Amino acid sequence: MQAVDSQRPALVTHDAIPVLCDATSAKPKKLQQLVADAIAVRHYSKRTYEAYWHWIKRFVLWSGKRHPSSMGQAEVGQFLTWLASDQQVSASTQRQALASILFLYQKVLNIDIGWVDGIVRAKQSQRLPVVMTMDETRAVLAQTSGTPGLFLRLLYGTGMRLMEGLNLRVKDLDLEQRQIIVRAGKGNKDRVTMLPARLVQPLRDLLEERRRWHHLDLSTNHASVDLPFALARKYPNAGKEWAWQYVFATPDHHVNPETGEQRRHHLFDWTIQRHMKAALRAAGVNKPATPHTLRHCFATHLLQAGTDIRTIQELLGHSDVETTMIYTHVVGQTAGRGAVSPLDRMG
């Protein structure tokens, strides 16, 4: 996401983000809390909340901290035009900003601002995802080690997104059937993906280590983990159960900023990102690859091996096959037709 770094200083006339009064409460609720409540009711992810609040806050600051209810279609259009023309954000960033602000008006404030038109649209870039070849992927994974290395191999072998893998619980692994249930993926959807046979034993070994950690945590009252939605209230002790433990947990305890509890978190995304960057450097692969690139490699290499596009769509969890079709462009339209460059035909 591209952040908006400059504001309109002349418009800034107030000192704080506005608050709204909740009729059921003696105290007015801050706008941020109202957004958080609306997100929670719909079971959206924490990252969705962070993205939405980022753009809502930017919109309010851009306006000179005016109350959103005092603005409407015209201001939203001007803000989106400013993002495209002055800030030169990408089309996807502009769309995310629009979605965030529409959520504010429609779901938080219950105000219909109508269709926002007349905006300067950020130019849609036709970009292909970064994909490594099989040899490059093999070389990079060979430079990984330990639990982060196992995690990166799992991303490549299953097509999971980074946070889907980090949020993996013990109960979601089926080593016998060699499958993984991905819970609450993008769009809050569950799906089933494959589990590579060569990762079954390494995962067994990891789970044995995790169980030893869990027994130790139980004895020191540090075994609790975060639970989705309201399960922690419904089942107060469920967070200590083995089934709910993170597969890829931190070796140390960390303080939960919301509850103050000391407990294990799942591995941090930056740990995996740094490990991937070091592996790329060691393998001599000069592509701007990230852990998410392994998901693109998974899909592209399956397609090259002859897997049909619908199967790949299901494994990736795409709602629309058009999204999956991007990988046909990565493989190349001529790759499956036996076309040979005229340069290679020269004697």
Describe this entry's structure for a reader.
- With 347 residues, the chain is mostly helical.
- The protein has two domains: 100 residues, Tyrosine recombinase, N-terminal domain (DNA polymerase, domain 1); 206 residues, hpI Integrase, Chain A.
- The protein contains 15 helices and seven strands.
- The strands form three sheets. Strands 3-4-5 form a three-stranded antiparallel beta sheet. It has a two-stranded antiparallel ribbon with strand order 1-2.
- The longest helix has 21 residues.
- The N terminus is likely disordered.
Task: Write the CATH homologous superfamily of the largest domain.
Answer: Intergrase catalytic core
Separation, N- and C-terminal Cα atoms: 50 Å
Coarse morphology:
globular
What proportion of the residues is helical, as a percent range?
40-55%
Instruction: Calculate Rg over CA atoms.
Output: 24 Å
CATH class of the largest domain: Mainly Alpha
CATH topology of the largest domain: hpI Integrase, Chain A
Largest beta-sheet details: 3 strands, antiparallel
* Secondary-structure content class: mainly alpha
Helix and strand pattern: EEHHHHHHHEEEHHEEHHHHHH
Mean pLDDT: 85
Instruction: Provide the spatial order of strands within the biggest beta sheet.
Output: 3-4-5
Number of helices: 15
